[in-house]
Amino acid sequence: MKRNYFLVLLVLLTFFAISFLTNILGPIIPAANQSFDLSLALSGFLPLSFFIAYGPASIPAGYLTERYGAQKVMILGFLAMASGCVLFVLSPSFLTYLLSLFIMGIGMAMLQVVINPLLRTSGGEENFAFFSVMAQLVFGAASYVSPSVYSYLMNNVPNATQGISGFLASMVPDNMIWASFYWICLGIALVMIIVLIASKFPVVTLQEDERVEGFSLVVGLFKNRTVIIFFLGIFAYVGIEQGVSVWISKFLETYHSLNPNVEGADTTGLFWGMQAVGGILGLFLMKLFDVRKVLGVFVVAASASLLLALFGDIQTVLWAFPAIGFFTSVMYPSVFSLGLNSLPKHHGTFSGILCTGIIGGAVLPFLVGWLGDFVGLKMGMTLLFVALFYLLWIALTARPLVKNKTVFSD
């Protein structure tokens, strides 16, 4: 079929919007903590409310895409994003924030399910790998940009009387300037909805490895040891990613007296930026070495970086946190591909199950905060070593039916 590069651009913009909204929770937590007078455990409910939505939303989104098409599901996803933003900015409280994050999480899950098949269809199967890498770069760029936008808002919206900053200042409580970020997200969602409505979409025919089968099969697969191992692998990875990024700003404020709206936001942005850079290197390494070896080396390096981030001096900490982002970059594609290559069939349903493992981004940051109330945030974050050791175990014991092809393969 004829390639539609406008839709490729639209998918890339969607990746940007997802990342822009998703990965801002870390920089926001210290400000939300102060506005709502939260403990670390209650602060942990914020990522919990967002990422837990991936559990119930991912597989149904696959069914909706097959029945109603990518365009309608994407519009619905951005409507959920807009609805969550509206709910919070019009009634800013801790409870409405939790509910709005859950609604936005549902929208982001729906978009995640749709955009990869759409990218393959619109850009062409032969270009899918190239555009997938480009999408990850866009995702990383947005994760780098959003903390900078947040920092700008926190420094410029207070006392502003004119322009966009003045408008935002008039729309949020004086003690909740950080809530103005969700007005920006609302604007992005509305623009995307308008563009989507005006766009012409191709029919997305899901390949076998993208199709979600019956619910009874989902239940049956969850009895398979391989499925459980790699579901927990995705759970562990996203838990590590969010368990670090969500708490960077609060950690720097607590242990090094750094401003969460400046150094905290900048370091969080660098975490995501370095993850994008690491992803590029990871692609080359996976063409040279067995993916299990790459995963194992990067897990060990991430563990060493986390150790330095938690117990190093201030200068060490400021580069160690971004280093964790760099070394976590290959973990998601490595675990995902090892999982699919370890099961002989039902790859579409298995992919849906693996995507539900993203709820690890809800559970582990919450547990870190809960432990942090008893033993301090620094010791609470040592829980992430358990997840890292689990990924190392996968790297050492995985026996895929199909190994990744390298330049040295026969």
Would you give an account of this structure?
With 410 residues, this protein is mainly α. It contains 20 helices and no strands. The chain has helices spanning 5-22, 25-36, 40-51, 54-68, 70-90, 94-123, 128-156, 163-171, 180-198, 215-221, 225-245, 248-256, 260-288, 291-311, 314-328, 331-340, 347-356, 360-375, 377-380, 384-397. Helix 1 (5-22) packs across helix 7 (128-156). The longest helix is centred in the N-terminal third of the chain and has 30 residues, at 94-123. The model has no long low-confidence stretch (mean pLDDT 87).
Query: How would you classify the helix and strand content by structural class?
Result: mainly alpha
Which residue ranges are poorly predicted, with pLDDT under 50 across at least 5 consecutive positions? none
Oligomer: single chain
Structural shape: globular
Annotated CATH architecture: Up-down Bundle
Quickly count the domains.
Answer: 1
Give the amount of beta strand, in percent: under 5%
Question: What is the end-to-end distance?
Answer: 33 Å
Q: Determine the mean pLDDT.
A: 87
Biggest sheet, open or closed, and with what strands and sense? none
Topology order in helix (H) and strand (E) letters: HHHHHHHHHHHHHHHHHHHH
Number of strands: 0
Radius of gyration: 21 Å
Give the CATH superfamily. Answer: MFS general substrate transporter like domains
How much helix is in the residues? over 70%
Number of helices: 20
CATH C-level class is: Mainly Alpha
> What fold name goes in the CATH topology slot?
Growth Hormone, Chain: A
